[in-house]
């Protein structure tokens, strides 16, 4: 059975892209067929997995705006089971271009349904906003993973995110679930990180993944080499924790 998971948080820099790439690569290396969908105009997942944007013929923009078949936008990565629908800067116009279009919230859902049967997991890397691209992602998804950075303002903005999730559940996608909440960039040297973990666990309870992603310099280096941690440094702590997370995701 295949599952579409949106990786979302309207805050930037919380680990959405790092999680999309490395959870995707870890699931693929465990034998799952995975499709990454980059729906952030910054295209960090696209470049982070080694796609040269100059080589992109069709991107997610063409799929949701120009009705290109998603099969014609899917590209290979250096991991056999891991494919990607890339994003380019072209997507920056989509928020505005979608406004006057018919069924603008369900475009991604309709497209991904054409290829859903080909994959075990489709991971959507969302932009840092609660705009129409994120609403498309939440409408297309079976569930969401919310990465939360272990820092002082960790919970700030979460009520807006959860409110958006509820609105989508009410009007567009009644079966949308919270897959899990992922604590990221944990620094064991500070008390603050531990406080944040406690606070987030109090709020989300059993939804919080056992796996906590620590700060790991190899995770931050890998994208500039166009690689996931799985190929960049499979023996690093970063690779180990994303593999643990992949096993947790598979186990539910
Ligand atoms: P988002 O997609 O939510 O904006 P990113 O995944 O791009 O966040 O992460 C923001 C920055 O932090 C990036 O430079 C990334 O390489 C770095 N980063 C993310 N997770 C970690 C981690 N666990 N350890 C070290 N650096 C990280
Ligand atoms: Mg990102």
UniProtKB/TrEMBL annotation:
It comes from the Bacteria. InterPro entries: AAA_dom (IPR025669), DNA_Partitioning_ATPase (IPR050678), P-loop_NTPase (IPR027417). Residues 2-178 form the AAA domain. Transmembrane segments: none annotated. Gene3D superfamilies: P-loop containing nucleotide triphosphate hydrolases. Signal peptide: none annotated. Pfam families: AAA_31. This is Chromosome partitioning protein.
């Amino acid at each position: 059975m295949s599952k579409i998971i949106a990786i979302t948080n309207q805050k930037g820099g919380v680990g959405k892209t790092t999680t999309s790439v490395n959870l995707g690569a870890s699931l693929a290396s465990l034998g799952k067929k995975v499709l990454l969908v980059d729906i952030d105009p910054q295209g960090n997942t696209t470049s982070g997995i080694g796609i040269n944007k100059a080589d992109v013929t069709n991107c997610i923009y063409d799929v949701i705006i120009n009705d290109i078949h998603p099969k014609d936008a899917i590209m290979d990565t250096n991991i056999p089971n891991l494919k990607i629908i890339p994003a380019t800067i072209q997507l920056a116009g989509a928020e505005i271009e979608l406004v006057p279009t018919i069924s603008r919230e369900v475009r991604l859902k309709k497209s991904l349904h054409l290829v859903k049967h080909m994959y075990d997991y489709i991971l959507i890397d969302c932009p840092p906003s609660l705009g129409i691209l994120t609403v498309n992602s939440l409408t297309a998804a079976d569930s969401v993973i919310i990465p939360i950075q272990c820092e002082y303002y960790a919970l700030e903005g979460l009520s807006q995110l959860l409110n958006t999730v509820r609105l989508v559940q009410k009007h567009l996608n009644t079966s949308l679930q919270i897959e899990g909440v992922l604590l990221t960039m944990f620094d064991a040297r500070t008390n603050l990180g531990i406080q944040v973990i406690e606070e987030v666990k109090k709020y989300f309870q059993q939804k919080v993944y056992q796996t906590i992603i620590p700060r790991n310099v190899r995770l931050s280096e890998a994208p500039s080499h166009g690689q996931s941690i799985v190929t960049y440094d499979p023996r690093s702590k970063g690779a180990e924790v994303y593999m643990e997370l992949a096993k947790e995701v598979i186990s539910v």
